[in-house]
């Protein structure tokens, strides 16, 4: 399980987020990206599922990622 520990707005306009992970995490599941993104929020069984997309894809993000909650349900741990 992972959770956000702190979120800090920096004086240069950037933001620093610090996350804590209590369980092992496969390296291929990590993404680090820098840019201007829109965050589209969804949910699965009350848990937030967020899609980070380039701003021009915001209008179609749900078409792109819309089946994600169903896939989470189909591939249980």
Number of β-strand runs? 4
Strand content bin? 35-45%
Largest beta-sheet details: 2 strands, antiparallel
In terms of structural class, how would the helical and strand content be classed? Answer: alpha+beta
Q: What portion of residues is helical?
A: 10-25%
Your description of this structure?
With 77 residues, the protein is α+β, with helices and mostly antiparallel strands. It is built from 2 helices and 4 strands. Strands 1-2 form a two-stranded antiparallel sheet. Strands 3-4 form a two-stranded antiparallel ribbon. It starts with a strand and ends with a helix. The mean pLDDT is 89.
List the helices and strands and how they pair.
Layout: E1 2-9, E2 15-21, E3 37-44, E4 47-54, H1 61-65, H2 68-74
Antiparallel strand pairs: 1-2, 3-4
TL;DR of this structure?
The protein is of the alpha+beta class and 77 residues long. The protein is built from two helices and four strands, in the order ββββαα.
List keywords for this structure.
alpha+beta, two-stranded antiparallel sheet, 2 helices
């Amino acid at each position: 399980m992972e959770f956000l520990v702190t979120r800090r707005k920096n004086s240069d306009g950037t933001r620093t987020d610090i996350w804590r992970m209590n369980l092992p995490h496969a390296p291929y599941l990590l993404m680090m990206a820098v840019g201007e993104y829109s965050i589209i929020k969804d949910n699965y069984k009350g848990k937030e599922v967020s899609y980070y997309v380039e701003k021009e894809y915001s209008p179609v993000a749900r078409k792109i990622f819309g089946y994600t909650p169903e896939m989470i349900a189909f591939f249980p741990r």
